Amino acid sequence: MTGTLRGLRADREFRPAPPLAEKLRHSVRLPGGPHGAGAARATVRSLLLRHGLADLCPAAALAASELVSCADRFTPGLDMTLTVRWQFDALRIVLYDQHPAHASPDDGEECRRQRSRAMWLLARAVESGGGDWGLTPVLTPRGGTKSWALLSR
Questions:
Q1: 64: left (phi over 0), alpha (psi -120 to 50) or beta
Q2: How far apart are CA 25 and CA 12, in angstroms?
Q3: Please, are residues 71 and 147 in contact by the beta-carbon 8 Å criterion?
């Protein structure tokens, strides 16, 4: 995983999204700590049910939970922002955390490798469904990490 978007597989049957899916754009601030993953799962399930995307609930709830859990392991106790959006015929789950900037590029790359390895369950679940995932540092002086999962129907 290089942190770049590879795109979704084209071999899946195309199913048009329900009309309500096009309006799915939601962001929520989550607390750091053990309750963040549960809050992420509940939020994602609720949003998908309200927007006619119930078939994506199991994979999306797992993806959100794994993104939050991994972020909390590397930035314990710090708030994070979860964004859920339907765009370009895919569900996009993006998490921004407050991981501090690294002193050197080598330290940053090692940290990214460790985080990628910690997301093995997310990788298996998303890729088995034809989706994509990744993470990249946010380019601000204070640091931060953006991690995401893309799921198609």
A1: alpha
A2: 24
A3: yes
Question: How much is the pTM?
Answer: 0.84
Query: How many residues comprise the chain?
Result: 153
Q: What is d(CA 22, CA 88) in angstroms, rounded to the nearest whole number?
A: 9
Distance separating the N- and C-terminal Cα atoms of the chain: 23
Summarised one tens digit per residue, pLDDT across range 1-54 is 445 555 555 555 656 667 788 889 999 999 988 899 999 999 999 999 999 999
**Amino acid present at 17:** A
Strands (DSSP E) contained in the chain are 25-30, 80-87, 90-100, 132-137, 143-151
Token code pair at residue 119:
């997301």
C-alpha Rg value of the chain to the nearest Å: 15
Q: Count CB neighbours of 51 within 10 A.
A: 22
pLDDT in tens, 51-106: 999 999 999 999 999 999 999 999 999 999 999 999 988 999 999 999 888 888 88
Q: Which residue has the tokens 């953006």?
A: 146
Q: Which of 40, 42, 21 has the alpha carbon at shortest distance from 29?
A: 40
According to DSSP, the residues that pair with 80 across neighbouring strands are 30
